[in-house]
Amino acid sequence: MGSSARSLELRDASVRFGGIAALSEVSLTARPGRVLGVIGPNGAGKTTLFNVACGFVRPDAGSIHWGGQELRGLRPHQLARLGIARTLQGLGLFDRLTVLENVLVGADPQARTGFLAGLLALPRAGRDEARLRSRALETLDQLGIAGQADRHPGALPYAVRKKVALARALVAEPELVMLDEPASGLSDHELSELGTLLRDLASRMSVMLVEHHMDLVMSVCDDITVLDFGRVIASGTPDEVRDDPAVLAAYLGEAVT
Ligand SMILES: Nc1ncnc2c1ncn2[C@@H]1O[C@H](COP(=O)(O)OP(=O)(O)OP(=O)(O)O)[C@@H](O)[C@H]1O
Ligand SMILES: [Mg+2]
Which domain holds residue 5? Predict the structure, then answer.
């Protein structure tokens, strides 16, 4: 991660869906080397914020800049070329592809229509393909699931499928990774593994994390932005945010521990 590493900046981004203000004048910055948590109750606008931040949803007002370049109306493969990767709130895996093939889709986002289709139909040992395969296997290995490379995701436990989705985001070695509820459905042990992994990722890239698991958020994030009804109601370090009365109120008295 050189000094040229890029930051992602949202300035006063607003999005309406019909009568709903899904985001209202939201500003935040995701910086290299840091984990930025985005929290808030259900429907607060967290996923919408990710969709706007990565250019999939165009804001009605405001701007998004990535290393000084404005992001607008991007398609997934363009995002990958800019060094940005994200996971979806659901798994978003292709059940008819193997684990390895799912990860290869992340290595080459045009793979499904391009080389992967070719690879599946006529196995050729092209140098690029071999390189991508070995990188995909390496990524699976780093997550401890290389042994599942040839299985189909539908046959695997949920926690393993979550790792496949993560591997697909990480395989292209992004500068920024946006993770939408990576901890959902994980056991306590898997949560603590994920926490360690997220800190490790932050040493190489910017991490944006949408999560409901407060213990995880408070222990891994450097910065936290709290949304409620599409507005930023607090932002700061975990300690600052934890004690903020507006945050406690937004969670309707749920203990933010
Ligand atoms: N495509 C859409 N069309 C209409 N309304 C939408 C759309 N996407 C989101 N919304 C609405 O925008 C608001 C914010 O939704 P969003 O999914 O961003 O919340 P969230 O914080 O991610 O919630 P959760 O914690 O449940 O995932 C909600 O009121 C939601 O119903
Ligand atoms: Mg969401």
Answer: 1-31+59-73
